[in-house]
Amino acid sequence: MSREGARAGPAAHSSHVGTTLPRSDVLEWPDYFMAVAVLAAKQSRDPHTQVGACIVSSENRIVGIGYNKMPNDCTKAFPWDKEAASRLDTKYPYISHAELNAFVNKTVVDVRGCRIYVTLFPCNECAKIIIQSGIHEVIYLLDKYPDKDETRAAKRLFENTGIHCRKFKPKNEKDPVDFYSVFGANQEQSN
Ligand SMILES: O=c1ccn([C@H]2C[C@H](O)[C@@H](COP(=O)(O)O)O2)c(=O)[nH]1
Asked: Could you tell me which residue ranges the CMP/dCMP-type deaminase domain spans (predicted)?
């Protein structure tokens, strides 16, 4: 039974003021931050891969949120194609990545010592932004393109600069948030 609205018994009186217990099944911080990144990803208009990023301070404050999108005022003028005769006719040279947008949207001057929750392992360009901004930890949901040069270069950059990179593991065993919904079915990885 949900404890929402439950009444505190005699034992609870010793640790709670009043007779109504607070809800206890809230998200743990890491699950909350990754859920925010997943929610941000759902705003992306990229028809193939939606990415979300959430920058969090050492005091567990969210200081920047972003998702992959075309630059402002460019949504209609640029293609969403993955392939074309020329790379200039694909989305890749134009799309602004989730990590960059989270950094651009930051609410604080300095993100040194922050960590970033991302739904996709960062590419090399985003790795450079992460390193240059002083973010010290990357928590990613899915390493979708481990064999791409962009991912391999990002890993080299992170290894070289001592930036801790780890795969997100939900704290709540029951996993009340469908984190992988942003990637469609069967995308969960063990690495
Ligand atoms: O670090 C990254 C890497 C990629 N993205 C964005 C850029 C694109 O919109 C998609 C990748 O598209 P695919 O069709 O899967 O190649 O992800 C990002 O935001 N951050």
From this structure: 28-158
The sign of the torsion formed by the CA atoms of 172, 177, 178, 183 equals negative
Is 100 part of any domain? yes
52 CA distance to ligand 1 middle (Å): 10
Which two three-digit tokens encode residue 154?
Answer: 């990002």
Q: Which residues are known to be catalytic? A: 99
Decide if 187 is inside a domain.
Answer: no
> Per residue in 133-153, pLDDT tens?
999 999 999 999 999 999 999
- Which residues approach ligand 1 with their CB closer than 6 A? 46, 48-49, 51, 68, 82, 95, 97-99, 120, 122-123, 126
Count the domains in the chain.
Answer: 1
pTM of the predicted model as reported, rounded to 2 decimal places: 0.89
Determine the 3-state secondary structure of 56 from DSSP. strand
Q: With respect to residue 172, please indicate whether it lies within any of the assigned structural domains.
A: no
